[in-house]
Specification:
This protein is of the alpha+beta class. Helix content is about 35%, strand content about 20%. It has one domain. Strands 1-2-4-3 form a four-stranded mixed beta sheet.
Length: about 180
């Protein structure tokens, strides 16, 4: 009996293997200190994570490598996804270092992102409301949100060693400020 109780206790203790970030996204209400930084209900891009816009913020994700799977079923969706893919790939965000299904096909960036690159993206992508990035872009207007949980991901660069990525500070770039 004692052994059974111990096994049940251990099972429950290890049952939930979600990361602190995933638990935060899955179980929290949208934090007002974050939603206040974002434009109304406009679609946003969250670097490296499609779950945060969808499940935490209850709003559309403008682009994610994961969203490309639906492109198989609709020609118009495939064309729109392909255009967004090209536009976002220029930023070389975590999405293009994290997923084998979203390979980066250009030359690797050796300099930090610039305001001009964000401005060009926001101008081309008229439906995009904001970008939430894990890095500060020099000379671009931004707001900072510090998360109560760390976002963690594994970068899987093609032909390179796997690297861990972790952040709890996010930079919000509103397209209205960049156009």
């Amino acid at each position: 009996m004692h052994m059974t109780f111990s096994l049940v206790a251990i099972t429950f203790w290890q049952w939930d293997q979600r990361t602190p970030w995933t638990k935060f996204v899955d179980t929290s209400d949208p934090p007002s200190d974050l939603t206040d930084l974002l434009p109304a209900k406009a679609p946003i891009y969250w670097e490296g994570d499609v779950a945060t816009p969808w499940f935490l913020l209850k709003r559309p994700s403008y682009f994610s490598c994961d969203q490309g799977t639906g492109a198989l079923f609709s020609r118009d969706t495939a064309i729109a996804y392909g255009e967004r893919y090209k536009d976002f790939q220029k930023l070389q965000t975590l999405d293009f270092r994290q997923y084998s299904s979203c390979p980066f096909t250009g030359k690797r960036r050796t300099t930090p992102l610039r305001r001009a690159e964000l401005s060009a993206l926001c101008t081309r992508e008229e439906g995009l409301g904001a970008l939430v990035l894990a890095e500060r872009v020099a000379h671009a207007p931004y707001k900072v949100w510090v998360s109560p949980a760390r976002f963690e991901a594994v970068e899987q660069p093609q032909g390179g060693a796997r690297m861990s990525f972790s952040a709890d500070r996010f930079y919000v770039y509103t397209c209205a400020d960049l156009r």
